Amino acid sequence: MATAIDRPAAGAGQVLWTSTAAFTACFAVWTIFSIIGLGVKDRLGLTETEFGLLIGTPILTGSLARVLLGVWADQIGGRRVFAAVMVLAAIATFLTSFAQTYGQLLVAALGVGLAGGGFSVGVTYVSKFYPANRQGTALGIFGAGNVGAAVTKFVAPFVMVAMGWQAVAQVWAAGLLVMAVVFLLLTREDPESAARRQEKRSAATMREQLSVLKNVQVWRFALYYFFVFGAFVALALWLPRYLIGVYKLDVESAGMLAAFYSVPASVFRIYGGKLSDRYGARSVLYVTFGISVFCTFMLSYPPTTYIVDGVHGPITFRTSMGLIPFLVTIFVLGFFMSLGKAAVFKHIPVYYPNHVGAVGGLVGMIGGLGGFVLPLAFGALNDITGVWTSCFVLLFVLVTLALTWMHFAIRQMERAAARKGTQAQVPELPEMQGLGEPGVAIPPRRAGPIADWRPEEPDFWLKGGRAVARRNLWISTYCLLLSFAVWMVWSIVVARLPGIGFGFTTDQLFWLAAVPGLSGATLRIFYAFLVPIFGGRLWTTLSTASLLIPAFGIGYAVQNPDTPYLIFLVLALLCGLGGGNFASSMANISFFFPKSEKGNALAINAGLGNLGVSLMQFLVPVVITMSLFGALGGQAQVAADGSRMWMQNAGFVWVPLVMIGTLAAWFGMNDLLTARSSFADQATIFGRLHTWTMCWLYTGTFGTFIGMSAGFPLLSKLVFPEKNALSYAFIGPLLGALSRAGSGWIADRLGGARVTFWVFIAQIAAIAGMLWFLEAHSFAGFFAMVLALFFVSGVGNASTFQMVPAIMRSEVDRTAAGLPEGERRLQSERESAAVIGFTSAIAAYGAFYIPKAYGSSIDLTGSADAALWGFMIFYLSCAVLTWAAYSGPGGLLRNLDHRPASAPRPALSA
């Protein structure tokens, strides 16, 4: 039940919405020069730098005034100061219509800028009506008044074309004056000012209000706002000019489309406040900066013409971002900037409840200065470099610095807290720990690392551990499914390329199908060790987001038949980012579950993750037959038979799904501090013979699954050209993924070594059947044997991973018998996770060598028989090794596999 102190003050709702409307009017006036500046630029012959100074001058005034206005709002009362700001800004805006020269316009712009100072006044005023646990949402709603920039972009161009730029200034001035009157009629004095007057207390002096600004952390906080708000304002001002210059639009269209950025960058600030209240502002800022780095990087790349010296002469091709992809990227950037703006201001009234005006004013001032400095810098960069996208290069550098600084500051504080054993007390923004006003408690972080994790203890597991582990498992599984889908997408795309005009040879096509396996396997070697270093939550977020690079790249490359083979080869290599994710995902999940459920959990994570291959092979052939994204997705390609295909959808279809996975990983997963270790701690696995033995065995199971997934579609098209094998290609990976996900319990109950041995015997039989039916040229029999191979490889994938924890526990007990039991258990868990990741890396090379073996066999002998005989010999060696080392009479796991099962834990359902 909420107490009185947890409820908003009387009249808070009316004050909030009226203040938001007033701030919207102020913001519309504050950004007016972004439109009327276009009306005078050509008439006065302004350079890009002069134009940038003109549209930035109001931003300068509004920014510099914020500190002083914020302090006055604390001292005099926000209601009075807010109304006075609106009246003065309205007068200055009206007088702007009489300016005739560039100098007069600059002076007028200084006065117009007072409208922007209303932000710090409003933050101070509104925050006093709400308790700390509601201020994030309340200030998010108030901050949505940024949408005033969109109002100006939508309406002002039409008024200017119809009546002239002077009329825009006069109409906007009248509207702001009316809003000031409405504000005074519908609002009341804030509770703090009313109480102070009733008690006849004097307000804090200016010096006292400004004293908190000596904290360097407040200035660092201001740096974050410099990007999320300053860059927003700068782009809101600059985009009309950018759209006219780059895409040759008229002023009305440019203003309308610029609003496409301003609206989400304003309205969704409300949602950012809700997210900050619920998940914590630090998490929101991490996502904001991470996505912004990606978006600004994409926007930074200028239109470029490449000339490659090819074997048969120069190869020329061109890359550029069209208008629609540009608008989509800008929309995404604006959306996440709006979340970040709310996250920054979530903390100010909580940490500094008695200095909201000063602190909020400073942070707002620095952010507003970004809106002044950056348009100037954009214009100067255009004049200096002559490259339109130089403005986004600057923003990319800025947000990368902000993200890096924030991350290392947070990690430093977390490490310091870990040394003191006070991780739970680390605040939302650890770099602000110990600061704030005296007597103000710093709120603990809601989400973050877990320091106490004891899954082997039944009470801990049943009272909360299982729920946390399952949540991490299902999010990890979803992200891994997308990783496999992007990793193997070339297995379908390459078979379609010749039909839409790409003249690649058979060998080149097999290379494209095989190269993602090569890069994915290589990346797994590194990914296997990164979870204990970075933390599972952060690494899963980053690795999932990295899938956007090949997804976008494929979508653009396949639309132009002149795209050179080299570009396709690079994109195929980048698809390996998805393959690398498996190692880190499995290593991460292995830490969450007890030994009795580890095999099943890993089977679910890997098995359902493997479903991404089947999902891709089923979904891509469907989506390329339709205009899935309309005009956003580009034009169709006409095939040789006259049919139309949208091959770009093979990449674009994953973009929204990857974005969802990235957000789910960041907001839903956890880091286990007990799993943290350095590379040196994990490197002990390289000295253990069992590590290399398990690499060999897992290559026989998973290498088969992923290699056949990559090679079967193209192999069947070449060996059985009369059959539409692509329609059935998804069935094998589906069967293998489901058998892996559903058979983990078999290895847990019967023993992983015994199951693995019989898997290899079954694989030998399946290869023999494939050879038989190839000789008989029977597609039905051949496909049945392929399905059998997929099924048993899935069972073997689960059983081999089930073996690893028992092997490593036995090894650690043997080689480190002097350590306490708890330390041996922790060391064996760390080594097990590292071995699982590393073996998955080595086995993933199957995605390279199996398609390449098929291609080489067909080129050299005219059939795939030689490759299949080689696979049979390899499986025979795996069966012998499993029997000798693990499942036979002298095997390490012989006694463990035959040990009576202890009381089972509740099963983890699939």
From TrEMBL:
Belongs to the major facilitator superfamily. Nitrate/nitrite porter (TC 2.A.1.8) family. It comes from Sphingomonas horti. Keywords: Cell inner membrane, Cell membrane, Membrane, Nitrate assimilation, Transmembrane, Transmembrane helix, Transport. GO terms for molecular function: nitrate transmembrane transporter activity; nitrite transmembrane transporter activity; secondary active transmembrane transporter activity. GO terms for cellular component: plasma membrane. Gene3D superfamilies: MFS general substrate transporter like domains. It comes from the Bacteria. Pfam families: MFS_1. It is a multi-pass membrane protein. InterPro entries: MFS (IPR011701), MFS_dom (IPR020846), MFS_trans_sf (IPR036259), NO3_transporter (IPR044772), NO3_transporter_NarK/NarU-like (IPR004737). Residues 14-414 form the Major facilitator superfamily (MFS) profile domain. Its main location: membrane. This is NarK family nitrate/nitrite MFS transporter. The chain crosses the membrane at residues 15-39, 51-69, 81-99, 105-126, 138-161, 167-187, 221-239, 251-271, 283-301, 321-344, 356-381, 387-410, 473-497, 509-531, 538-559, 565-587, 608-632, 652-673, 694-713, 725-743, 755-774, 780-801, 833-854, 866-886. It is found in: Cell inner membrane.
